[in-house]
Amino acid sequence: MKLLVAEDQSMLRDAMCQLLTFQPDVDSVLQAKDGQEAIQLLEKESVDIAILDVEMPVKTGLEVLEWIRAEKAE
């Protein structure tokens, strides 16, 4: 399983990613520091699960979710 973690607080993001990599079903974990970086990664990579912080600079997690829904609707 491929995951994306988008979180603007680097210590929290790093800790979450570290814990997720220890899970047996997790193959890789992508990291984004804000919503815009998350969208840029999602334009290039397909993920099974995206864990999005609601409040981030540039674009919020909700804006990323709207982008995902719009892209998947096409």
> What oligomeric state do these chains adopt?
single chain
Gap between N and C termini, in Å? 24 Å
Strand order of the largest sheet: 2-1-3
Instruction: Estimate percent helicity.
Output: 40-55%
Q: What is the typical, i.e. mean, pLDDT?
A: 95
How many helices? The count is 3
CATH topology: Rossmann fold
Major sheet = 3 strands, parallel
In the predicted model, the low-confidence regions spanning at least 5 consecutive residues are none
CATH homology superfamily name: Response regulator
* Topology order in helix (H) and strand (E) letters: EHEHEH
Number of strands: 3
What proportion strand?
15-25%
**CATH architecture assignment:** 3-Layer(aba) Sandwich
Radius of gyration: 12 Å
What is the CATH level 1 assignment? Alpha Beta
Protein name: Response regulator
Modified residues (4-aspartylphosphate): 53
Keywords: Phosphoprotein
Domain Response regulatory: 2-74
